Amino acid sequence: HSGFVAIIGRPNVGKSTLMNFMIGQKVAIMSDKPQTTRNRIHGVLTREEGQIIFMDTPGIHKPKHKLGEQMVRTAIDTLNGVEAVLFIVDATMPKGAGDEYIIEILKKVKDTPVYLLINKVDIVEKNTLLGIISSYKDDYPFAEIIPISAKTGDNVDRLVDNLMDRL
Ligand code: GDP
Ligand code: MG
Predict the structure, then answer these.
(1) Mean predicted lDDT score pLDDT of the chain
(2) 60 labeled binding residue
(3) Coiled-coil intervals in this record (predicted)?
C-alpha cells in the first residue's frame, strides 16, 4: 500500500491544512504562492500498512498567459502520474468558477481515481453541506465523496484508511 497522491483545489479551501493534519508537520506553508508547481511541496505519511507521498499542488488555476497554459499542462501530467487525486472544495462557499475550472481539468485526466473532499464541515449546517454535495456529485465520476474537517480532523482517518486500501 503505497503511492503518490495529489491534493488540488482553489486557494484557501484547506489543501495545506489537510496535508499538515495528515502528516503532522508544518511543511506545506510555503505552497500558497501562485504558480509554484515547480516547487511542489511533498509530505510523507508512513504507517505500518504503507506509505503515501502527498503533493500539495497550487498550480491549477485559470491561465492568464502562455506560462499559465504550460503550468496547466504540467498539472494535467502530474495528475495523470499519481495514484489518486484529492480534490478539495470549501463547504462554506458555493461552487465557483475556480472549482468548475478544476473539474474541466479533471475531465482531461485518465484513470486516476479522484476523491471529492468537502472540507470545513466543522463550520457548516448539515443542509448547506448536503446542498454542496449535490451541486458537485454529477459533475464527475468521483471515486469517493467524503465530508471532512482538515482543521479538527473529522473523517480524516476514514479518508486515510480508504486511500491506504486503494493503494
Ligand atoms: P489552501 O490555500 O487550500 O492551502 O488553504 P489553507 O490550508 O491555507 O487554509 C485556508 C484557511 O482555511 C486557513 O485559515 C485555515 O485555517 C482554514 N481551514 C482549512 N481547513 C479548515 C477546516 O476544516 N475548518 C475550518 N473551520 N477552517 C479551515
Ligand atoms: Mg496551501
Answers:
(1) 86
(2) yes
(3) none
Cell numbers 475550472: residue = 101
d(CA 148, CA 78): 24
Cell (9 digits) for 39: 516547487
Q: Is 34 in the pocket of ligand 1 (CB under 6 A)?
A: no
**Residue 31 clears pLDDT 50, i.e. is over it:** no
Q: Ligand 1 within 6 A of 57 CB?
A: no
Q: What is the pTM of this model?
A: 0.90
Annotation-wise, does 155 bind a ligand? no
CB atoms within 10 A of CB 49: 11
Task: With a threshold of 0.85, tell me whether the complex ipTM lies above it.
Answer: yes
In order of their start, the domains of the chain are 2-161 (3.40.50.300)
**Ligand 1 pocket check for 120: Cβ under 6 Å:** yes
* Spatial distance between the Cα atoms of 14 and 111, rounded to a whole number of angstroms: 25
Residue type, 149: S
Confirm if 112 and 82 have CB atoms less than 8 A apart: yes
Phi, psi of 142 (to 5 degrees): -60, 140
